[in-house]
């Protein structure tokens, strides 16, 4: 059985979070130095560390089975690799931007010059809008293109907007794309039963990590007469787990609750009579 060939970003904002997520899912991805290939024999996986922009190409061409990259980079590559799981980190929006008081909507881009590092993505978006414009392809930062007279507007990933403001630009119109890190798969995986099974396991493990990041375990003691009201607050996935306590008239309850809602649920549980309310984090899970 050949190992699953997995492409990971070798640098940039996606690199560390991708490695951390895989570690939480039980994979061994640590590099002692700047190795380009790391083997994980326990999970029968080989990790290849590549430029984020190249990952979709390697996966789409079938050289590698799966990879983690940005949705924006995947779509700009125009290869046949497909997104199979959004991973919840590396979120950013893709916008048009220009000088304040200049172009203020997408229609104003007709016939204009647009600088971008994502020409295929932008060209497809403009075609959907029925707009014809001249694309100026630049590698790396494009924020200075308008100031230097190379373009009338830019199209780029916007995380905080600080860099755009510093360059005297502002976004306009609706976002071209909402991007984040995604797990991608090549078409050749479907032709190999071993790879299909390995990807299914990977998919379940990463989903387990995503769920664990969204939920916490809530434990509390509750008077029997208040349990129905408490259960409305903590319905759980299937239902709460309930165990009788040595103290007559009381039960112990355990349930999964959304992490962001936990403080408010604790307040309400206390109000209805629950006590000894504890919150525990999850490492991973299957639901």
From TrEMBL:
Name of the top EC class for this enzyme: transferase
Recorded superkingdom: Bacteria
Gene3D superfamilies tied to this protein: 3.30.70.120, Periplasmic binding protein-like II
Activity regulation behaviour: Feedback inhibited by histidine.
The Histidine biosynthesis HisG C-terminal domain, residue ranges: 212-283
Enzyme Commission code: 2.4.2.17
Annotated ATP phosphoribosyltransferase catalytic domain residues: 51-207
GO molecular function: ATP phosphoribosyltransferase activity
Subcellular location: Cytoplasm
Record key words, sorted: Amino-acid biosynthesis, ATP-binding, Cytoplasm, Glycosyltransferase, Histidine biosynthesis, Magnesium, Metal-binding, Nucleotide-binding, Transferase
UniProt function note: Catalyzes the condensation of ATP and 5-phosphoribose 1-diphosphate to form N'-(5'-phosphoribosyl)-ATP (PR-ATP). Has a crucial role in the pathway because the rate of histidine biosynthesis seems to be controlled primarily by regulation of HisG enzymatic activity.
Protein name, UniProt field: ATP phosphoribosyltransferase
Organism encoding this protein: Saccharothrix hoggarensis
